[in-house]
Amino acid sequence: MTSCEPGIRMHAHQIDVTARDVRRLLAAQFPHWASESVMRLPSYGTTNAMFKLGDDKVARLPFIPGDGASIAVEAAVLAQVAGHLPVATPQVLAVGSPDAAYPFQWAVLSWLPGEMPVPEHLVAASALVDDLVAVLRALRRMPAEGVRPAQRSAAFCHPADEVRGYLAELDGEFDAAHLARLWDDALAAPAYSGPPVWLHSDLLPSNLLVDGRGRLAGVLDWAAAGVGDPSCELLAAWNVFPSGARELFRARLGCDDAAWRRGRGWAVSQAAHALAYYRSTNPGMVEMATRALRALEREPV
Predict the structure, then answer these.
(1) What is the pLDDT of residues 163-208, one digit of tens each?
(2) DSSP assignment, residue 155?
(3) Residue 175's domain spans which residues?
(4) SS3 label, residue 135
(5) Percent of the chain with pLDDT over 70
(6) Co-location of 290 and 182 in the same domain
(7) Quick one: 164 and 289 in the same domain?
(8) Number of domains in the chain
(9) Using CB atoms within 10 A as the burial measure, which of 45, 134, 255, 273 is most buried?
């Protein structure tokens, strides 16, 4: 996969963040790390610049207005999930403040080793299914009372006609009519009637790490986490797993037809929006969205 290279602007209101900013902020706020090497990381992310610090840390700096709040949110979520999951999550080592030149909160996190899973190159797909299902089951056992709604929690994030517009733009490149039927079927599916449960809510390949054996080694980017309808976690079905493992994922989670239909809706809307919005700016997101839509084209309605 090809990630978004540093310097490419994805949003009109995006600010530039450089290694010089990181070094200045470290020197002023965390001088014990000021001598660490600072390397900008290519990233699939759409709201944060990532810089590796030394060998074992990463700095996360939002680059769009308003997203600085996600630093505090993610720090709180990571503290809540720590110790509850069977895989690693980043540890928040420090939360930094804005200065005269950089306007947002930022964070230093522990570095987690591993590689992003690519569906067609998984070396242990069924084992990865088991690993991710174990994470989701552990999340569902966590107390949900008083926890904020996840970014993808109950209602779909994009208005129905907006998603249909994205799909119409893809006609000729994809089977847009079939994808639109999946979207309409998701809208018609029975709503979730169970209690809200803990969700990661952004289970894309770029937020997962696998080790050399193909097993799940870490789950990243918890800024969208919260509670809600667990069908949104089915994003992983069409983004992380190939056919076969996808059906195993459904079976191991015990998804009923209504949840599966809603899950397809989350996958269609996320991928269609990503492809429309990031087509010329974030090739990694485009590649993930393209792969998901190709898989969804083969889904029976």
Answers:
(1) 999 999 999 999 999 999 999 999 999 999 999 999 999 999 999 9
(2) S
(3) 119-297
(4) helix
(5) 94
(6) yes
(7) yes
(8) 2
(9) 45
Please report, for the domain that includes residue 100, its CATH number: 3.30.200.20
The SS3 of residue 216 is strand
CA dist 20 to 17, 37, 51, 100, 141, Å? Answer: 8, 11, 11, 14, 43
Q: What is the pLDDT of residues 64-95, one digit of tens each?
A: 876 556 899 999 999 999 999 999 999 999 99
| Residue 268 CB neighbour total at 10 angstroms | 28
Inside any domain, residue 31 = yes
* Residue 14, in any domain of the structure: no
Read off the tokens for 77.
Answer: 């979520």
The model carries a pTM of 0.92
Find where tokens 């030149």 sit: 101
Residues with Cβ within 8 Å of residue 206, at least 6 apart in sequence = 43, 44, 45, 116, 220, 221, 284, 288
280 & 139 share domain: yes
Q: What CATH number does the domain containing 248 carry?
A: 3.90.1200.10
Is pLDDT above 80 for 228?
yes
Residues 6+ apart with CB under 8 A from 194: none
Domain final position from 110, 143, 177? 110
SS3 state at 288: helix
Please report which helix (H) or strand (E) contains residue 197, including its range: strand 197-199
42: DSSP letter: P
Residues 277 and 128 in one domain: yes
Taking a C-beta distance cutoff of 8 angstroms, is the pair 276, 166 a contact? yes
Question: ∠ CA(18), CA(64), CA(281), 5° rounding?
Answer: 75
Lowest mean pLDDT among 74-83, 113-122, 151-160, 216-225: 151-160
Distance in angstroms (rounded) separating the CA atoms of residues 247 and 135: 18
In contact, 291 and 11? CB cutoff 8 Å = no
